[in-house]
Amino acid sequence: MFFLGVNIPDHKIVSIALQSIHGVGRQTSVRVCNQLLIHPQCRLKDLPEDKVTQLSTLLNGMTIETELKKQVADNISKMVQIGSYRGLRHKAGLPVNGGRTKTNAHTAKKMNKSRMSLDG
Question: What's residue 40's pLDDT?
Answer without folding.
Answer: 92
